[in-house]
Amino acid sequence: MRHGGQVQVRRDLAEQIYARVRAAILDGRLRAGEALPPTREMARRLAISRNTVGVAYDRLAAEGFLTSRAGAGTFVRETGSAARGAPAGDPAGLPALREAIARHVGVSRSVRAGGDDIVVTEGVQQALDLIVRVLLEPGDVVAVEDPGYPPVRMLLAAAGMRVRGVPVDAEGLRVDALPGDARAVYVTPSHQFPLGMPMSLPRRRALLDWARRRDVVIVEDDYDTEYRYGGRPIEPLQSLDEDGRVLYTGTFSKIMRPVLRLGFLVAPPSLHRAFRMARYVSSWHAELPAQAALARFIDEGLLARHVRRSRREYRARHERVADLLGTLFAGRLDVVPAEAGLHLSALLPDGTDDTAIAARALGAGIGLFALSEFAVTGPPVPGLVFGYGAVPRTKIDAGLRRLREIVP
């Protein structure tokens, strides 16, 4: 799999630094307890990126050759090998859970993956953090949907990425508007967030072709595919990908509980080792009891049963919200058609102050979002986002009838 000459060069340099330091430790040129140059100094000496040095140091630490002391620096470990008493296990997650996830997404989402392709994460945010660590450098351009999910662009910006918003239309992300210097593209093709439309098959193929020609990584966030209420199943980009450049992410917090911080990343074989190393460095000590419990929950068929039961309930809420928006707000709101998820979006006339409407609604005990809050770089589109995941059916009617008095 190719990720551009720049990324390949970084990987080669990190491999060289790793090999030389490891050899120096093994043959005694670097002795136990001896300090290594700080990453900044090493990068300056070699005229390379500090991140490249960090990758090599992180790998050596993960393999037990180095240890870090807060405020002191990086040192050769006393034993020169894995630390005595270090916990056994794989940083990619409990093998039983990874196998269970692979089977689950294979059946429910048509994702092509085995257990070895899965990295268990603490959610989509951590999956994206791992992708940044492994494949991107500060200053790289990452394209995101506009409007889109704010926490993603906040994480990317905090990591030093240059975030560019790309407009969406009725078929999803506009491939023709992608920036030519993008190194990665983040998309929600099965159920665009927040508008709700799926990316059409021609558009998905166009995106894959564009990424292949320009050697770009695609991050596919499939955050709520289990809750699909009608229409044809949406084939994920990952299953259409023939080059192994789609990194597929998902979460269990939407279908279980938000406090269950468990998600996953599906990576191609060429990146297995790199993502395991990044997972080890970022947060190796996972909640193994929770992982074991979830693996059993999936294997015993309880997750599938839970999804079927909750899908029926959410379908009823979805249909009720859509019906009332169409009747109570005819001529005021233009509902964006959607057949999945736990929210619906509706557009307001140009020039409407949707943030003021959302504030007045909150004062009346109605929680919703202003669509303009999700704008990235393009002009904000006024509208409202109605989440019904936590709203009982018995309260939907009353809430929307109160909102009718607020929306102009």
Describe this structure in words.
The protein is an alpha/beta fold. It folds into three domains: 4-76, Arc Repressor Mutant, subunit A (Orthogonal Bundle); 95-300, Aspartate Aminotransferase, domain 2 (3-Layer(aba) Sandwich), CATH 3.40.640.10; 304-405, Aspartate Aminotransferase, domain 1, CATH 3.90.1150.10. Helix content is 42%, strand content 15%. The protein has helices spanning 5-26, 39-46, 50-62, 95-109, 124-135, 150-158, 201-214, 237-240, 272-283, 288-299, 302-328, 354-363, 393-404, and strands at 66-69, 73-76, 118-121, 141-146, 162-169, 172-173, 182-187, 217-221, 246-251, 263-266, 334-335, 343-347, 369-370, 383-387. Helix 8 links the parallel strand 8 and strand 9 (246-251). It is globular and about 80 Å long. Keywords: Aminotransferase, DNA-binding, Pyridoxal phosphate, Transcription, Transcription regulation, Transferase. InterPro entries: Aminotransferase_I/II_large, HTH_trans_reg/aminotransferase, PyrdxlP-dep_Trfase, PyrdxlP-dep_Trfase_major, Tscrpt_reg_HTH_GntR, WH-like_DNA-bd_sf, WH_DNA-bd_sf.
